Amino acid sequence: MDIFRNMHVFVAVAKASSFRRAAEALGLPGSTVSRRIAELEHDVGLRLFNRTTRRVELTEGGRLYFENCQRIVQEAELAHLELTHLQARPSGVIRASLPVDFSVMFLSPVLADFCLLHPGIRFELDLTPAQANLVEGSVDVAIRMGLPKEQNLIARHIASMDCGLYASPAYLAQHAGPSTPQALSAHECLRMRDGPWTLHPRAGGPAQVVEVSGRFVANNVGMLRQLALAGLGIMVTTETWAAEDVAEGRLMRVLPEWAPPPSQAYALTETRLLPAKVRVFIDYLARRLSEPADRGQARPPSPRPPVAAA
To answer: Residues 173-194, buried b or exposed e (16+ Cβ, 10 A)?
Structure first.
């Protein structure tokens, strides 16, 4: 039992890169943390940390030990949590990192229903396009658009949303809408990032890759929408997000017989070993966001390649 407790302290120090911050997170005196690390180093017969006045770093042996200890500690903690939740409903705080536009359009009503089912779960929500720090434990789950590039994260697909091209009537009257995908290269295109657009024919057939350009690149769909409404170009967005503007005549569909790849949403976690509160939340999102009645054009995964949008 002492070895396991010392391993738990070791993992906390390794994640925090600090004895002081680990002590604060564990609610232990700093002297206790130092003593337990010393005991563990004595037991394994190796120095686990290189200590300086400014930083605490794992040694080579410490890094190897951390990889194994972290898994053991996580499994033990989750085993305890699973037993605890056998007779109790999931509870506690979920720290979630969410994209702004997706949250406003799709997650707000889903969160309201989830909270009615799980009144013991509370949320700390960080609405940001930046990559969340899942490794150090500051975030339990991150929702991101597009399959993540980080190989060390676990990604679960939770939603797929059909997309289209849209522009304001004023822009189309001034510039004459494109009649073919390749004609987009002569237009102002409002983009999430530099790079070509891929369009698929709705009737089936080969996709076309179009080199597009424009004066505006932004990492926020809401900002691109405002620019499109102002007549400054053509944007790609989900059909659900554009539906109200189209119904009110503020936006028009461009090249309706062609469509960009669906926008995909993923729930990212550091590990598959999730506490009950996080697991039920991700399960609920995946279930609700696959119901067309609840989320407009969102649906299960499409055979088209995912769009990596912020």
So the answer is: eeeebbeebeebeebbbbbbee
Encoding tokens for residue 143? 């929702």
**Domain spans of the chain?**
2-84, 92-161+263-299, 163-259
Considering only the C-alpha atoms of the chain, give the largest distance between any 2 of them, rounded to a whole number of Å: 77
Tens-place pLDDT, residues 158-197:
999 999 999 999 999 999 889 999 999 999 999 998 889 9
Question: What span, in angstroms and rounded, lies between the C-alpha atoms of 139 and 124?
Answer: 9
Whole-angstrom distance, CA of residue 196 vs CA of residue 287: 33
Domains 92-161+263-299 and 163-259 belong to one CATH topology: yes
Any idea which fold 2-84 has?
A: Arc Repressor Mutant, subunit A (1.10.10)
pLDDT at 52: 81
pLDDT of residue 90: 82
92-161+263-299 belongs to which CATH class?
Answer: alpha beta
Task: Please tell me the pTM assigned to this model.
Answer: 0.66
Q: Which CATH architecture has domain 163-259?
A: 3-Layer(aba) Sandwich (3.40)
CA gap 98, 103 in Å, rounded: 6
Q: What is the mean pLDDT of residues 229-242?
A: 95
Which amino acid is it at 224? L
Q: How confident is the model at residue 115 (pLDDT cuts 50, 70, 90)?
A: very high
Cβ contact 254:167 at 8 Å: yes
CB environment 116-150: b (16+ within 10 A), e (fewer): eebeebeeeeeeebeebebeeeebbbbbbbbebee
